[in-house]
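Q: What would this chain look like folded?
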Amino acid sequence: MSRKSLGSRILTVTFVLLITVFVFGLGYLFGILFSNGGSSNEGVPADLNTLNSVKSLLSQEFLYGEDTTEYSDKLIDDAIRGMVDAQNDPYTVYMSAEELAEFTGSLNANIVGIGVRYSELDSGILVSEVLDFSPAKAAGVQAGDIIIAVDGRGVETFESDELLNSIRGLKGTDVTITVQRGSEKLDITITRDEISTTVSSRVEGKVGILTFNSFSDGSVREMKQHLDKLEKAGVTSLIIDLRDNGGGYVTTLDGVSEFFMKKGDIIMRETDRNGYETIDRCKSGPAYQYDKIVILINNNSASCSEVFTMAMIENCGAITVGDTSYGKGVAQVTRMLKNNGALKYTDLAWKSGNGVSISGTGIKPDYEVRLHEALYMSYLILEEGESYEYDTVSEKLINLQYMLDFLGYKVDRFDGYFSRATSDALKAFQKDAGLTADGILTPALAIRLNSAVTTAWGLHKDIYDLQMHKAMEIAGK
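A: My prediction, written as structure tokens:
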């Protein structure tokens, strides 16, 4: 049985599932497209002969064309993309071999490293979280540590990607990080290993909080580790945070569902183009039981996240908190092509076990809770030479005003007019950051503001995460 992906194109990430079975018709079509020459092919449909003739003319006679393999391959890629794009389905895409490799990696969550989440500061790399079961945890790295050097080299001398790669390295090799912990400087040697980063957890009293980032390879095994840890801690209620989880493998969806649902419970109903319905049921379970289950969702919770949420609502009485989910009610299959690329196309629509479709509407949470508006906005980016000061107007200043408000500086409006209060708030931010307090927004200052908001959110979610506050209130009752 082929595996299907309910991956989602959220932000810049499209989640795909690779299936190594060729579709005969597509194989035949692209076999023709990859043939050389422009002569007619006996028994080949006229429209495909025409397409092949155009390819030949462009390659051999077109003024700007080239009679090379590279140019011929590009023509094929462009022809395929044209056919696919004309369908106006955002989930149906053609991927070249290079794109396919990139997307394959997006669902392989295992990376080699030390196992920390971090934010970049002027003084170094702030460790915001140390992942459970990671080499960093075993070596004694703590949240709040500031990494100031890697293998004796100060972090300020690295480019961003270079620093990341120096920490990751090869499995089984050692890296020594120097951390500032309060007034102490510590050298900690860590042996790099594979890190699966799709699941993390913590305990708050009798409530277990499980953060689930994607339905990836290894997620079922990883989730079991965390659920076992929570069980040992004696939790009686569970919060599952699916915010920004764009989906992934259906096989992972099935495996995760069996931790909570009963054997025979319906996970989803899938319908193909001919109206044939397939029912996906739990094959075993439940492995864990809780008095209450609360699920956090937002606009970027999509695909498998939505299937799982609906199944948990209908089968386990889960309560939802947050923002309305994305609303992706279709599934895709991915077929390999002869050029080592792939076609991912929509082949099924899905509904919940009770027949509910969320396509285009999403899941409206039981408790709709908004975060601060600054957390919904894109980064504040100014072009080189662009600046704003008192008595100017720009839509970008709306971002500025919400960011300042989020950081605790008093502003009087959120309409993009650079008011006196906005200027005073910006000057206060500059002063606190040790900068010249001139009240002028520049590209460099915009970067500092972006960093400040990201760091504040990462380190102080206990203050800013109103959705989690509500989930804790419900789970703790």
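The chain has 14 helices and 21 strands.
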